[in-house]
Amino acid sequence: MKISAELVAKRFHNHHIFKNVSLQFESPTCYALLGANGSGKSTLLRIIAGIQSPTKGKVIHSFDGKEIAQEHCFKNISFCAPGMDLVEEMTLKEFLQFHFGFKKMMPGFTIDKIIEFTGLKNVENKFIGDYSSGMKQRVKLAQAIFSDTPALFLDEPCTNLDQKGVDQYRNWVTEYGKNRLVIIASNELREYDFCNNRIEMESLK
């Protein structure tokens, strides 16, 4: 997959978060968007993913040399961010069944195997609303990483994770992100130290 950002700008009220940003991302490569809180990395990630519109400029998504229409981007991109919502009135099994009704699972996976990978087998029939923040983060990561999409976007992926969860995340991304376009927005080295391509938000201003 290839994503091109062309002279992209984002303004909130009269304040520009960034402007005239031109970047190109191509699989299979892992990129890190780096910057302090408030630097605009999460906003840029959402724009590149097609979740949020830029104030100016455009983002072009293509796969196998063919441009992807904006309304079909979600089929090709998996996304995980601390602020994204889970359906907390569902059990883990119900939520994953719901999610994978819209996205294909990676080959060789089943709902039961994903639940086993998360380490949440013992609470698979409990409502997600009763989970701890770390457990919810593992669910968010699992629904993104184990979706069969050419692109994987992760925003501050280790939020609320203990060390065991961090190790799990790193194993998942390095193993199941190998042949994908992976973009990680972060300011913590443990989340992106395996990325060879790093983009500092300050350098874009």
Concise account of the structure shown:
With 205 residues, this protein is an alpha/beta fold. The protein is built from 6 helices and 9 strands, in the order βββαβββαααβαβαβ.
Explain what this protein looks like in three dimensions:
The protein is an alpha/beta fold and 205 residues long. The chain has one domain (2-204): P-loop containing nucleotide triphosphate hydrolases (Rossmann fold, 3-Layer(aba) Sandwich). 27% of the residues lie in helices and 28% in strands. The chain has helices at residues 41-49, 92-99, 111-118, 133-145, 163-176, 189-192, and strands at residues 2-12, 15-26, 29-34, 56-63, 66-67, 77-80, 151-155, 181-186, 197-200. Strands 6-7-8-3-9 form a five-stranded parallel sheet, with helices on both faces. Helix 4 packs parallel to helix 5 (163-176). The longest helix is centred in the C-terminal third of the chain and has 14 residues, at 163-176. It is globular and about 50 Å long.
